[in-house]
Amino acid sequence: MAGGSAAELILFIAAIVIAASVAGTLTSEVDRVSDAISAKSLGVAGEIRADTEIVSDAGAGVYNRSGDGNVTIHVRNTGASDLPADPGTVDVVLDGAYVTDVNVSVVDGGETWHRGDVVTIEFAPATALDPGDHRLKLVVRGDEEVFRFRTE
Question: Model's pTM, two decimal places?
Fold first, then answer.
């Protein structure tokens, strides 16, 4: 009889150890998932804070307005945070080609692109634009805008 009780005690202790191991593993996995969700939400919150709208009129002509062969567009900061008005803030792709030399300036002056402010983005395409349709993609801290315009 004593042998049966000892076997049951051993099985009971083994069951408790296994249950504790499973509970510990589940707890650590829940913590990892929670940390991953928190990290992702911070990234998404930063992208939401950076929101822009291209306010240029495609019909008014954005290419070669001043005779220097530049493309000039106006972009409003509609996001919840201020952005620096410098070329490192924006990425421009024109007709599938990445543009490296971009000038960004706040229309009302200043170094900071406040919420509601408009900036002028100006750049010279690598080659003169042929007459026809063109596509400009603007990326500002994860926010993507597409602008289509036509040249004569």
Answer: 0.67
